[in-house]
Amino acid sequence: MSCDRFFSRDLSYLYIKTARASHPSESPSLGVFRPNPLPLSQNLSRLSKKLNMQSSVLGFPRIGKNRELKKATEAYWSGKIKQEELLATAKAIRAEHWKLQKAQGVDIVASNDFSFYDHVMDHSFMFNAIPTRYQNLGLSPLDVYFAMGRGRQEATVDVPSQEMVKWFDSNYHFMRPEVSDSTDFKLNSTKPVDEFNEAKAAGINTRPVLLGPLTFLHLAKATKDSKVKPIALLSKLVPVYVELIGKLVAAGAEWIQVDEPILVLDLPTEILEGFKPAYEAIGKAGAKIMLATYFGALKNNVEVLKGLPVAGIHADLVRSPQNLDAVLPILSKEQVFSAGVVSGRNIWKTNFQKAIALVEKAVAALGKERVIVASSSSILHIPHTLESETQIKPEIKRWFAFATEKCAELAVIAKAVKEGPAAVRAELDANAADVKARAESPITNVKAVRDRQAAVTPAMHERAAPFETRIAAQQEILKLPLFPTTTIGSFPQTKEIRVTRNKFTKGLITEADYQTFIEKEIKSVVDFQEEVGLDVLVHGEPERNDMVQYFGEQMEGFVFTLNGWVQSYGSRCVRPPIIVGDVSRPAPMTVKESKYAQSVTKKPMKGMLTAPITILRWSFPRDDVSDSVQAQQIALALRDEVQDLEAAGIRVIQCDEPALREGLPLRTEDWAEYLKWAIDAFRLMTAGVKNETQIHSHFCYSDFNDIFDSILRLDADVISIENSKSDMKLNNVLSQYTSCIGPGLFDIHSPRVPPVTEFKERIDALLKHIPKERLWINPDCGLKTRAWPETKADLENMVAATRQAREQYA
């Protein structure tokens, strides 16, 4: 069976009906476009009689209750299952999720919120924004799609992945679209239509979700060979949206959700001016458009929404309750308001009293028939369900609501407003009791932690001497060569490591046996690094499950889940810790392993720590105290760890802060305050060491140009930074960094191994911007997710290129 026929016949997942990405001569059947003949006001009038206070979810987690999608996708990549089995798994997950939401009482369920990799890349593929390097490869359409996300290297194919960046200020990643003036936007698949039909066949009428054209283009970048601004392509892209929406209308879709989250950002004039013509064209396609914004405050951008021919507007009232007062005055007499009162970003139970008050305020202005109770954003960002979390203490578990439970919350809020509090009295009383119990818990206010915070002084944020003095003292001890080579910390987590750690966690092996195993793994990794020829070594982190979870498990104030998985990118899932109370460190966390690793080598061994902002951002933080308070508590706990590592003889300590840029507020006017306390937290953690101790930090997968001056203020001795997937775009700012720096030379999220010549070319390019005495050589990030063969090949090629560079530049 051909790929085309399979996709057409099984509507479970139609990325593309033709193999145009590989066979440009073929063209799809476009179907018949039938615009809705009724004007918008009549459509809305009919609709208002049907609504009467509904609930909606803007999107649901994709990976499955037990990460079924991750397992199937990785099995497909490794050749263990066929494409048909992967597609069948995806179809089963979607059906289960649609039915689950309905069972919890959600009235309006989203479709096209599913993705194999990320929803932004789905749109790049769907609209034919496929860079030329992925075309004519002789691959199936699905494999072309995966090559865009993770790269591909085999006998006849060698392509890197697209650039990966963070989705606004979340820990979700997307592949940045690439466009040029020659991009031929056209409908390359009918995925949203197929998934709508799939749900309809299962008896569920969904609201399809599309990423809006302004957001798509604002997040895109021009290809290397093009100088066009992506927004200049709006007039070419919008007709494809109109065509797609027409197909959805023909399939029976009444409402379509179009996400424009960029409206919570500071936007250039050309973006703001693009909304009116774009939505005037889209408005003629015959669907009722719910234009959705989320993650922040609309502020002045709300004026762009005024008068747009859309049937409804959604706003996030969790992160910005002020959006209610901003949006209500600009709504027409017919438009619907979707009130995002249940958080799609955090796991705390919704405070029903506060949420209902916001909804009732909207109802007072608009009437029940024009208000929808909704999640603030897609609930993609939270775990599937609390059902399996049997190990969390009941008195704490009662504070949480995961995705399934959030759906039930929406139904309760909608019913409370529609029918009155008496209709859900038991639910309201239980919720109030849980909110009160959390506020009064001794876990949430620990006197010793608060007293230590009160005693922090400005001097505790300052190193003893400037960088020039420190680096001289460090070099005298470390005696590093030109272009020191190192890695970022982790090495491949093999199946044997995971199985053994799991046995220890379950009590199936003794602590002594586990420690013996860990030391064997550390020794093996150290021996490997010496054999390859690295200069500053790491212990490989075989004892660590996750760079945040590992530390949270050893600090007070955190709880953990058994199955609280959240998608980070592609098949990569994480289990974020939950910060439930004030944070402290009862005992050393990493000293034993680092000290052992240093004992088996004469080369410098790095102590490896995760820094405060990353622990905060990659956990579910508290919502009852400020982020700055939580960051300072974590910094004080880690300050103790840094000083213990130094006392144990570790002379290089890496404090990773990859989430620093991610944590920036979405509005530039709020940056200064954030950067002040965020940088202070890092300095509080690291400033207590001697001049001879070298402090490293690491940053990955974010746009750093705007905050490079703040990275300077970290006062680290060496930083390593993701660079390989960004088209070396940071080169111009790297010259501003006055300490040592290691821009990443290869992408650790791809199985592709660059040849020695490519490594050498990157080193040569970097030396045009960075003095040779300050350049370090390293990967983009840790090697945990990679297999050993490619890890060995990557590092051997990296070291070989470095030796060539030493000979040339010595």
Automatic annotation (TrEMBL):
Cofactor, how bound (note): Binds 2 Zn(2+) ions per subunit.
Similarity annotation: Belongs to the vitamin-B12 independent methionine synthase family.
Active site: 749
Annotated EC: 2.1.1.14
UniProt superkingdom: Eukaryota
Residues annotated to bind Zn(2+): 698, 700, 722, 781
UniProt record, GO biological process: L-methionine biosynthetic process from L-homoserine via O-acetyl-L-homoserine; methylation
Binding site for 5-methyltetrahydropteroyltri-L-glutamate: 70, 171, 572-573, 618
Protein's name according to its UniProt entry: 5-methyltetrahydropteroyltriglutamate--homocysteine S-methyltransferase
UniProt binding sites for L-homocysteine: 488-490, 656
